[in-house]
Every structure is written in C-alpha cells, then in structure tokens.
Amino acid sequence: MVPVSFAPLDFAGEELVLMKSNALYWPRERALLVADLHLEKGSWYAKQGQMLPPYDSRETLERIADSVKATGARRVITLGDNFHDSEGTNRLDPYAAGMLESLTRALDWVWITGNHDEEMQRSFGATLVDEMEIGGITLRHEAKRGETRAELSGHYHPKMRVKVRNRHIARPCGVVSRSSAGGDRMILPAFGAYTGGMDAGSPEILEALGPANQIDAVLPAKGKLVTFPLYRAAA
User: Fold this and answer.
1) What is the pLDDT of residues 166-192, one digit of tens each?
2) Would you say residue 49 has pLDDT above 70?
C-alpha cells in the first residue's frame, strides 16, 4: 500500500503517485518510474576540465533505493538519459556499479534510452529498450508532439517557480496535459542529482504536449498534489 503522505494523480484511468523524490509510482504495476538520471554527469564534466564532486551517481542510486523501499516497488523503469553520455556506463566507480547491479538483480529493471545515451554500452543485467507500452500508456524519453495516446516521458527537466513567504523557489515538477482528442500525457521531473531545469511553462514544453485542452504543472506538497495552470485552450 502507498503511504497516505504521497500525492496521488488521476492519469489515463490509473492512479499514479508523484513522490517528493521526483519519482512516479504506479501502484497497480508496482512500478517506480524515474526520468533523466544523468548518471556520471560529474565525471563527464571532469573530462572537460570542470571539476565537480564525483558522487552524483551514488546519490542518485541511493535515492532510487530509498524510493523503492518507501513504495515496495518490484519494478523500475527509467525514461531515458539514464547516463549523461553512452560511455558513462564504463566510468561508474566500483561502489556505484555495485549499487546498480544490486538494484537490477533485485528488481525488474528496464532502461528506456534517451538522446544522451542512445548507445548505452552496458545494461548491468537489465532490459534495454527505445520505448515501451504498459496498460495502454506509452513510455518514452521525449514527448511526441501530436501524440493522441496516453504517454509518460522525461527529457525537459521541468521546474515550477513559485513565491513562498517572499522568497522565489524553483522546484522540479511534473507537467500534465489533458485533451479531449486523446489520452493524458505527462512529462516527469528530472530525478538525477546533477540535473538543471526548464521553466514548466516554456514554449518547448507546451508545444511538446500539444494539442491539449489544458496543461498543468503538478508537484507534491504535504501529501497533496498542488496544481498550477500553465495553459487553457480558448473556449
């Protein structure tokens, strides 16, 4: 059972749960969905001469393990840009590689590839696919403009900028579109430790989810799902 402190989302006839960790949990499938891990981004920057603390992969994998424990998920499905580049699989330090191999052994783990890691060089014993479909919902890395089927994707790293007690805060969020012409669609927040973000209301995101009757940013807060309208079709 999903703890009541998590925020439920009605999506394409399913109840999904958007977690504070930026993972999306699908209770009926006991599946944890995570987008844009960008593992080994720190080591990629180091190759370019920009030194960052080299522990981003460990932190990201630890957060996945915590989310699995919190939900009881038996399956993990990633939504692309799992590594910051296709060669990143070979740069994992032994500790992080061991963490990942333990997770893929214990879970039904599926990698969906993205534009950063289209040619992942290692799968760590997991399944590697371009996209997949579960229960009528298509899972892929980048939203397909004009898609009429229900869809879950990543790629854009959406963030919602809000003002709280006279402070401006940017928080990762999901972006959900509803359309009378087809299924619900959602862009998940980025999960990785070293991921930036794009404004949830940016034209790129709105166009990717079009055509739609409405588009909203959603984020969990105190066990509830807070919704911020981004677009409404003219009446």
Assistant:
1) 787 789 999 999 998 778 999 999 999
2) no
How many whole angstroms separate alpha carbon 207 and alpha carbon 229?
15
Q: Give the residue among 74, 79, 77 at the shortest CA–CA distance from 27.
A: 74
Torsion of CA 148, 153, 159, 164, to 10 degrees: 80
- Tokens matching residue 235: 């009446």
**What residue type is assigned to position 41 of the chain?**
K
pLDDT digits (tens, 9 = 90+) for 1-15: 444 446 789 999 999
- Inter-residue long-range contacts of 172-175, CB under 8 Å, 24+ positions, other chains counted: 172/22, 172/197, 172/219, 173/200, 173/217, 173/218, 173/219, 173/228, 174/9, 174/18, 174/24, 174/217, 174/218, 174/219, 175/200, 175/205, 175/209, 175/215, 175/216, 175/217, 175/218, 175/230
Amino acid identity, residue 173? C
- DSSP secondary structure letters along 2-23: --TTSEEEEETTEEEEE-TTS-
In this model, does residue 86 exceed pLDDT 90? no
Local structure of 69: helix, strand or coil: helix
| Mean pLDDT, the chain, integer | 90
Amino acid at 106: A
In the β-sheet with 132-134, what is the strand arrangement from edge to edge?
132-134, 137-139, 150-153, 185-187, 174-178, 214-221, 224-232
The pLDDT, as a whole number, for residue 235 is 72
**∠ Cα 58 205 27 (to 5°):** 55
pLDDT tens column, 90-104: 899 999 999 999 999
**Overall average pLDDT of the 106-117 stretch:** 93
